[in-house]
Amino acid sequence: MNTKYVSCCVLLLSTIYLTACEDHRDSPNANFPARINFVAERQYPEGIAYSSQLGKFLITSIPFGKIGTVDTDGRYADLLTAPELIAAIGMKVAGNRVFVCNSDQGRSVRSTPATTRQLAELLVFNLNTGLLERRTDLDNLLPAADPNFANDVTLAPDGTAYVTDSFSPVIYKVAPDGTASILVQDIARLGSAGFGLNGIVYHPNGYLIVANSGQGKLYKIDLQNANAITEITGTGTLPGDGLTLLNGDLYVVTGGTRVAQVRTTDNWQTASIVKFDATDYVGATTSVAVNNQIYTLNARIGQNANDRDFSIQRFR
Question: Which CATH number, 3.30.9.10, 1.10.3720.10, 2.50.20.10, 2.120.10.30, labels domain 21-314?
């Protein structure tokens, strides 16, 4: 498959990227609740973001391939139900656009034999219009026989997106114009017998931090040093899912049941765990930084049955 553009696609202005804040830390300082309970039938939302423009959280859905909103009072509403989305996984909001990973683990109502374990795309939607502005295929960068699962995305200040693949030992790079390439491919450090690469964040010092769930390790990819990959040691086994940076610390959702606050003193060569918050997390997946706080999505991940009660809770 090749990179595709819809007819309404326009080039994204560089000024948007330069001013957009990936997790909207500068949102109005509303008094957000410590826990936001919401009802969404069988949503099983893997990804979470926050839009200061909408004043709401955004959540994805594995079974239904859609994106919905949750306000601070716990009201859920569908936002994007585009037919191109099969299973919406990780996402990031930048200004009036949302970047979402589109994949298929075979658990969506839209799953097909052709897309199951073979789909990896990055879709960009306009939050004002709801229109799909760009659709970039990533799986075509690998041999057809290789499995694919675009899991999480992070954005650099210039608008470059970086996407992890959980089934292949690859991190993709998508330029601001939508051109896709393989940033790094390393089976020894990025591979896993099961679910591998997961959460990813861009650090303002010019590198990426990525979690390998299967290995229980964190890695640093130095974008200013030929994309050199080094293991971040000192945390012990930490099977990370979502990663979020806030005030210099890294918050790692791990095991679906707790969030680790991780800190470094040597620019992420090594790190240590400051504390765990392990209260009331249920199938937690990933977090977002809002109003100088970490909010984590309780997605009941892995159940994929008939749950309707989900929640978003603040790190304590």
Answer: 2.120.10.30
